[in-house]
Amino acid sequence: MTHDAQPTASHFIDGQYVEDTAGDAIAVIYPATGEQIATVHAATPAIIDRALDSAARAQADWAALPGVERGRILRRAADILRDRNDALSRLETLDTGKPIQETLVADATSGADALEYFGGLAGDISGRHIPLGGGDFAYTIPRPLGVCAGIGAWNYPTQIACWKGAPALAAGNAMVFKPSETTPLCALKVAEILHEAGLPPGLFNVIQGAGPVGAALSTDPRVAKVSLTGSVPTGRKVYAAAAQSMKHVTMELGGKSPLVIFDDATLDDAVSGAINANFYSSGQVCSNGTRVFVHEAVVGDFLERLEARVAKAVIGDPLDPATNFGPMTTEAQMQIVLGHLDTARAEGARVVCGGHRIERAGYWIAPTVLADVTDAMTCARDEIFGPVMSVLTFTAEDEVIARANDTAFGLSAGVFTRDIARAHRVVAQLKAGTAWINEYNLTPAGMPFGGSKASGIGRENAREALDHFTEVQTVYVGTHPVEAAF
Ligand code: NDP
Fold first, then answer.
1. Which of 1, 345, 388, 450 fits 459 for a cystine, CB–CB 3.0-4.6 Å?
2. Where are the transmembrane segments (predicted)?
3. Which of 177, 226, 234, 460 to mutate to test the pocket of ligand 1 (most atoms within 8 A of CB)?
C-alpha cells in the first residue's frame, strides 16, 4: 500500500526543504502495520549549524515587528492548518498510529487553536508601570529570548510543534524544532504552513534526529532556551545540559497522575473520565490519570460499567473513521508496556480486561484495566505510557489525598464528585500542575498546562507560556537631580 508520506526532504530550514543524506537514515514506520512509509536523515553538524544560523539571522527583524503583524501571520497559519485538517490528520495517523477519529479533532486543530490564540495575544505583549514615589517610576519590557530550541515527544507531533512554536514566535523569538525521530513528518508540515502564511525564512526551522541532535541544541551557545516535551530521564539530561550556558528551560515531562472517584460521583461520567484518562491515544498521553482511586463503596459497580464500556472499543485500521483505539507508536514502547503487564501480574494485580498484545501486524496492546492494585506495585508507581489503567480503592478523603500525592510526579490530577466543596478542597491539596473536576485531559489553548515536582518546570499555553518565552528588562526612570556622596 502506498501512503505518500515521504516528505520533500528531511529538514526545513530558512523557508525551504533541505536534504543532507550524510546524516543517518531514519525509517518512518506506520505503527498500525509495521511497514516503512518514509525515510528521513538525521541532521549532520552542518545542518544543525545552518538551522541555528538562519534562526539567529532572522530573529531580530522578527522581534522588531509590531506584535499584531506577527500575530496576523500566526492566525493565517491557523486557518491553513484548519483548511488542510483532513490531509494533516491522515499524516498524523500515519506518523503515530493514532486513529483518524482522534487526529481529526485533536492534532492539527489543537495546533491551530494555539496559533490562533497566541496570534491574538501577540499584539498585547506588554510590561508593567511601577510608580516609585516622588515622580520616579520603573517600567518593564518583556523581551524575546532569541533562538529557542523545541524538542518533541512522539505522541503529539503536530500539537507539540505548535504549542512550542506559537508562543515562541508570538513573543518575537525564532525556533529550531527537533521532532522525535520516531514521528518526524508532521512538524515539517507545520513549518511549511507557517512559511506559506508569511513567516519570514529562518524563524521556524525543523531538523531531524535522535537524542544527539537534541543534545547538540541543548548545549549550543546560540540557543537561549530549550523547551522539551519528553520523559523525566531525558528532562534531567536536557535541564543539566542547558544549565551549563544558563539557558531558560520549559520541561513538559511524564506523570503518574491520580484520578479520584468519590462515592457520590455520577458514575457513568466517572467511567467516561477514566476512559479518556487512560485509553485516548492508546494511553500515550503524559497527563493521563493512570492511578484511578475509586471509593470502596462503588468500586464493584465502577469496574462492571468500565469493563462493559472497554469491550465496545473499536480496534482496527486507524484510517477507518469508525476505529477509536489504535496501536502503540513504536515497537519498543509496545515491548516496554508488555514488560509492565508481566510485572503487574507477578506483583498481584488482577487483569479485569486486556493485559496482552493483540495479534495482528503492527504494535497493538489491548486496552487493559488492572484491579486490586496497591500503592507499592510498580504499575502504580512507574509511568507506563500505554493503555493500562490501574484501579485502587480508598475509603477516606484525607487518606486518598495523601496516597495521590505519594509520587515523585506532579503533572495532573482529577476528581469526580458531586460535592462542589469537596471537589475544590481536594484539588487544592493535590500536588499537580493541572487538575480537572468532573472532566479529564481537556487542554484548551487558553489554559496553562504543565507539571510540578519531577513532571517538569514552566507552563505551556495561556499567557503563562509567553512569560516563559520572554525575559523582563526593567527600566528605572529618574525624575530628580541626581544625588551623590561626593
Ligand atoms: P523521550 O524523553 O525519550 O524523548 C523526548 C525527546 O527528547 C525526543 O525528541 C528525543 O529524541 C529527545 N532526546 C532524547 N535524548 C536527548 C538528549 N540527551 N538531549 C536532548 N534531547 C534528547 O520521550 P518520548 O519521546 O519517549 O515521549 C514520551 C515521554 O514524554 C513520556 O514520559 C511522556 O510522559 C512525556 N510527555 C510529556 C508531555 C507533557 O506535556 N508533560 C506530553 C507528552 C509526552 P529521540 O526520541 O528522537 O531520540
1. 450
2. none
3. 234
